[in-house]
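Entry:
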Amino acid sequence: MEQRYLIDTNAVIDYLANKLPNNSANLIDRIDTHISVITRMELLSWHKATNEQIQVLQEFINSSTVVGLEEKVILKAIDIRKNYRLKLPDAIIAATALVNEMDFISRNISDFKNSTGLHVIDPWNL
């Protein structure tokens, strides 16, 4: 089975701004991109974004698989939030990766270090 990756909001922003190191950008170029519905919401609610930036974000979202809030993800997010005290959006994103057996690409390693079983990849140290 091919490895699947869930990409965090911060990694999407760095990728689209061409700020990621080449090996991380190349990885994202090669994979089928998956994002949480939370990442979609965070990207599109950027209040300072220009129309051009929103268009780029929307194109990325349209080319990605947006993973929604199914019951298993909701229950896992509740468990993570209760046990690891993550913010609700982070708990949902972590639960999405765990339930769907995906590695998680994020530069916020410290936010997720205590989420049992979550394999976090820092795109700045790949």
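The first helix runs from residue 9 to 16.
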